[in-house]
Amino acid sequence: MSVAERLREAREAAGLSQGQVAKKLEMHRPTITEIEAGRRKVPAQELEQFAELYGVSIEWIVNGSTGADSGDARVLMAARQLSKMSDVDLDHLMKMLRMLRKKGADE
Amino acid sequence: MNNSKKLALDALAKALWLRKQLGIKLDESVSPIDSAERLGVEVRLVDLPSMEGIYTAGGTKNIFLSSLRPQGRRSFTCAHELGHHVFGHGDQFDELATEKTPMRQRDPKEFSADCFAAYFLMPKATVDNGLKRRGLVYASLGAVDVYRLASWLGVGYRTLINHLLYGLRAIPREQASHLLREEPRMIRRHILGQGTEGNLHVVDEHWLGRAIDCEVGDIVLFPKAVEMEGYQFIEQKNILDKKVFKVIRPGIMRASIRTSVWSAFIRVSPSSYVGRSCFRFEEEVNE
Fold this sequence. Notes:
The complex is a heterodimer of chains A (107) and B (287). Chain A is built from 7 helices and no strands. Chain A is mostly helical and 107 residues long. Chain B contains 10 helices and 13 strands. Chain B is globular, with a radius of gyration of 19 Å. Classes of the chains: A mainly alpha (107), B alpha+beta (287). Chains A and B meet through helix 1, helix 2, helix 6 and helix 7 of A and strand 1, strand 2, strand 4 and strand 13 of B.
């Protein structure tokens, strides 16, 4: 998955439309479209703005990982033991936990 | 004192302590999502059918709530997860309540979080005050009265009855059984004079505390003299001394009554909203 695709995924998980993001970040809506289509590069400063707005880790946007997978594995193991959540839902949850900003990680 | 009673009293003390910390008066209803956000807990609504709520304690604190559950239940689940946070429990996973195993029901952490949620959303003083302002008394509470109170407290109809019976011991078992036999769907039909599949919020001039939170497609009943500032609602009809509105778009607006000092904010989210809770009332932007 590319940076552009992760930006789109993070926006959707945050519950925002392209128009709402454009308004909040004072950008033009087509700019967001171009970024999410991978046709426009994203400067570091904008990456920070997107990460802050979407509540996700910059590291995840850039690399697709956060270096906190051992913590995720612990959560996954506990979830499997303690709940009757379906495998599909657990996978979705883990994907989201990997995406989210970790305390101190981006500070 | 048995262990359950001790856990319940601890939960009550924690719930009242948190309300005080957050500056929530005892005559006010409360939004547990707003409370979690104020404590720095990230709340996200997700469409995961097999779960009720999750609290993750590592790194950033998160609460995940299923957007697929009814609003009252979602609110109670959020308060329950907030209980795990306040008690310092570790990661917690709460699947569908109907699938809870006896072992989980006896889990002291789950019991504490349930008691915390009930006392945080419905402390005795808050419920007492809500009844008094509306000229109601416990002994003659009818189904419509309970529905109105549950609307204001932001909890489910049955949740409130069970709390009145077991948590507050404010009504006898016989009265609770009678009230529990009434279906919320039929109560809505009785209030509106017609059936509705969506949520019905009954708002009166005694609504103190949290904003009136609803979703697109919901029906809201206001006093007839209400004045709306915003474009999130369309007026449908009058029923006796009430006005019926249908919620049509997300955003925040204000309702007031010219002849009274009462006013309240109304916050509308999309139906079954998925995303960060802090964006749930964002207005749509023309694309």
